[in-house]
Write a structure and sequence with these properties.
Elements lengths: L3 E12 L2 E12 L3 E5 L6 H9 L6 E6 L6 H4 L2 E4 L11 H11 L7 H11 L15 H13 L5 E5 L7 H18 L2 E6 L2 H7 L2 E6 L2 E7 H5 L5 E5 L4 H9 L1 E7 L2 E6 L8 H7 L4 E6 L4 H9 L7
Helix pairs in contact: 3-4, 3-5, 4-5
Length: 306
């Protein structure tokens, strides 16, 4: 079994009568980019803050690299919050240097490393400018700089694209991929930007109303549930009854039928069986879902950025 960067078991958190997290058991493989999706208010930020120890769970457990959180473990973690708040009178360099020292970085080259990481996030030449003059996108880039300055083993990103324009989002995606390739670090991304997650992530989990409704590799989730679409010349009753009898899910509209064959059905023999029942097939296609379609099917949410 592959080593886990994050492991939670039956994680619960409530605020009065509101259940923010309901029994979340999740394993995030080490060295991979993991996307944690959900509508606004699904419990994503509560989950990430619980992992970091900012919030105490009602019950359940959290382990990072197989250990319960302790001060020494925090040095191996980089964190970019959804809202980056930096003292406006600090320069970009001063902020990153402070972050490096808080992460217990030492050595004569620490200043050079700060300058290098500021350039890496796209703020070259801005190191001596006060953060109070920065745009939201520039502040977000600087927030990423403080999250990676100490070369963490685990990078936690809460809505990393917040405030970034399309070029900034592309830059951040490329930087995350480059850092993961260079150091092999594990990356956990909270987001509702489905397109970015689909481009970036190896594994995905979907949270809805505090409950985990799906988890798996991108390939496993997007290869669908073996859904099949058939368009018939005439929807003969015998054909319809046959398809219903072999389906775990079934739907029809006029002469178009969609169904998910049950486990005992031999998918290869279905077209021949339709013909034997008197059906004339105009179209037979195995369908696939993209991440957006899966997300909407599982959460019922049609108002998320893609």
């Amino acid at each position: 079994m592959k080593e886990l960067a994050i492991e939670t078991l039956d994680l619960q958190k409530s605020y009065g009568t509101i259940h923010a997290l309901e029994g979340i058991s999740l394993g995030v493989p080490k060295g991979e980019i993991f996307g944690f999706l959900g509508p606004n208010g699904a419990g994503k930020t509560t989950f990430i803050k619980t992992i970091l120890g900012f919030i105490k769970p009602g019950s359940g457990s959290v382990k990072i690299f197989g250990e319960v959180m302790h001060p020494g473990l925090k040095k191996r973690i980089g964190y970019l919050p959804e809202r980056v708040n930096i003292h406006p009178f600090l320069s970009a360099f001063e902020f990153v240097l402070l972050s490096a020292k808080l992460s217990q970085m030492t050595g004569p080259d620490i200043s050079k490393k700060c300058i290098d990481v500021i350039e890496k996030v796209g703020l070259a030449g801005k190191e001596n400018i006060k953060v109070g003059t920065f745009s939201k996108g520039m502040t977000q880039r600087l927030g990423l700089a403080q999250a990676i300055i100490h070369e963490p083993d685990l990078l936690l990103l809460d809505e990393p694209g917040s405030g970034l324009d399309p070029i900034g989002i592309k830059d951040m995606r490329e930087l995350i991929l480059a850092e993961k390739k260079r150091s092999g670090m594990s990356v956990f991304i909270n987001s509702h930007r489905l397109l970015e997650v689909e481009k970036l992530c190896d594994h995905v989990a979907i949270l809805n109303k505090g409950k985990l409704v799906a988890a798996g590799s991108m390939n496993d989730l997007t290869k669908n549930k073996n859904q099949v679409e058939v368009v018939l010349e005439i929807p003969e009753e015998k054909v319809i009854n046959y398809l219903k009898s072999i389906s775990s899910e079934f739907g029809s509209e006029n002469n178009r039928v969609t169904f998910v064959p049950n486990e005992s059905a031999d998918i290869r023999k279905i077209p021949a069986s339709i013909i034997e029942c008197g059906g004339n097939i105009l179209k037979y296609e195995r369908l696939s879902e993209n991440l957006e379609e899966i997300f909407i099917r599982l959460t019922g949410d049609t108002n998320n950025e893609i």
